[in-house]
Amino acid sequence: MKHPLLASLLAFATSAALAAAPVSFDFKDPKGVNAIQFHLDSLLEPIAGTASGVSGTVSFDPANPAATTGAIVVAAKSLATSNNMMTEHLHSANWIDAAAHPEITFTIAKLTDIQTSGNTTSAVAHGSFTLKGVTKEISVPVKLTHLAGAFGKRINKPEVKGDLLVVRGEFTLVRGDYGIQPGKNEDKVNAEVKLTFGLVGSAPQA
Fold first, then answer.
1. Residue 141: inside a domain, yes or no?
2. Can you give the pTM of this predicted structure?
3. What is the DSSP pairing of strand 134-147 with strand 162-174?
4. Is residue 89 part of a domain?
5. Pick from 121, 134, 126: which is nearest to 109 by CA?
6. pLDDT score recorded for residue 109
7. Low-confidence stretches of the chain (pLDDT beneath 70)
8. Which residue of 40, 50, 106, 125 has the smallest Cβ count within 10 Å?
9. Is residue 176 domain-resident?
């Protein structure tokens, strides 16, 4: 009697491991909603804008959030403010040099300080951030919400199966660390840039 029981337990463990396999979520939003907000609270000209050209993939396993990896990519030319001339200056070689460095990337190596409640995981994402050809290691507090079976509902096609992963967070960078006019024009363009994001990744099922 012991051998059939052992075989059943092994089969159950194997099926559970397969069910908990990580899923790849695509952050190129089919609805075109994904965007990152940036804010520079300078003395003379508080500046706010968005970066809408978001793509990338993140591998996430709700049973093992610590194994999360992936990359979020932003098209540099998608950064925009409400002032057209200011946006042109932002894209220029003196600032982010969007022509020479068309992508801004955060590559996620791991998550730490993980706390999961229901379908939401709070953690710190560690990885490398690349802007204007300069790469630095950073840590970003994030909140990941795994919405099983919600893909079809979001695109108004409930018959379509798949999951969603919503990633929220914010962090601050110093523009001078990335060779962006270090120490210059700080009365109009603050040295620190605050970035806030709420991004939806999709994993449709065939």
1. yes
2. 0.87
3. antiparallel
4. yes
5. 126
6. 96
7. 1-20
8. 50
9. yes
